[in-house]
Amino acid sequence: MEAKPYFCPNCRANRIKFNLITSTSLQMLKDAYNGQVVEQADPMMIAESEPMIQCRVCNYSGNEMRFIRQAEREPRIENTIKSTN
Ligand SMILES: [Zn+2]
User: Fold this and answer.
1) In the chain, what are the domain boundaries?
2) Cα separation, 14 vs 85, whole angstroms
3) pTM (two decimals)
């Protein structure tokens, strides 16, 4: 995950609230006769080159790059107080 600002390309109203969608791998042993899980390990996160991000305002999800690109296209303008005198 990159330390860059996000901006939702769908609703264009959210720069703050996101979910990081990940895949996990969970090692388990099953009983071959009744199908019960007899042993399971802690889930391990599968590292992905480009994570999936979900907007928590409109629920749109897409590659992280789409959110970064949108933020680059429409960067947050910081309020600067300019004197008109
Ligand atoms: Zn959104």
Assistant:
1) 18-73
2) 35
3) 0.71
